[in-house]
Model the fold of this input.
Amino acid sequence: MSNTSVLLQPITLGAIELANRLVMAPLTRCRAGAGNVPTDLMAEYYRQRASAGLIISEATQIMPEGQGYPNTPGIYNEAQIAGWRKVTDAVHAAGGKIVLQLWHVGRVSHSSFQPHGALPVAPSAIAIPGEGRDATFKKVPFETPRALDTAEIPKLVWAYELASHHAIAAGFDGVEIHAANGYLLDQFLRDGSNQRSDQYGGSIVNRARFLMDVVDAVTAAVGADRVGLRISPLQPANGMSDSDPWATFSHVVRAVDAFNLSYLHVAGMGVDQPGAAGPTFDLNALRPLWSGKMMVNYQYDQARAEAAVHEGLADVVAFGVPFIANPDLVNRFRLDAPLNAADANTFYGGNAKGYTDYPVYSV
Done:
């Protein structure tokens, strides 16, 4: 790759100016400190990767009830805001840009994470098949969640709005609404997990109402040009399915397009499992429905990313595991340098090993 590569060219996503089109995808690493406060080690981890055009933070719970994994950071109190400020300051000092991913896991949680040991919440009282993790990271059967009352949903919308304000107070350049991977907003979108009979269930318009309320509140709070949205229409993880994913997500994309967001982030998980989450469709078919900037993610390498941008299927490309193992991924792509292999045993939890100790490339 030469310096004239399209991936190395600057681009603006809403109000956020990127030095290149390589994005660090959101990556849960389970290394937050006591009280789910970001640590100095996390600041160093993100600082090392500041050459990315944009960093999307690891998923960050908007409220205590939104947590579903140990040692994941929050953005709902002053200590967490201060911890994140160290991260954003480090990234900005290194010349980078970073947005915070707003997260509520819904039924993926376990009562051991919940205040007073309550059941996790969801659109409907439908358990995920199989096993999840409790607060000690022990495998346990997923619990049957409590269906949210209609009157509770506006309070959740407010929590997303408040978390957005907190993110800006912590120095982030914007936020990404996490509506993917089988978490709460995704659970409302898909009819396999949403069997409500109120205004938040039934028709596609109703199932999308919670997401639309969140998008409306978050954009009003921080400006649409600092808000991205992540969806994963074909993702089967966490028991997700839909009877007509194309109808559901084409509606979502068209509806959200009116907000003029900073970007739409389409994650491709599930493309290699046709039919696992419902009838499949070509994710590229969403591109003509979106008038703004498009981000894609999932198993892209340098060549595929170049092709996606050249063909107009994406404006920027998000990389996950390659950024874990290669803090200098942008430079490695520039020099056509070999990539470090990632150590999957160190993905979740632990300290510096497999986190901040990957070497940078030297000739």
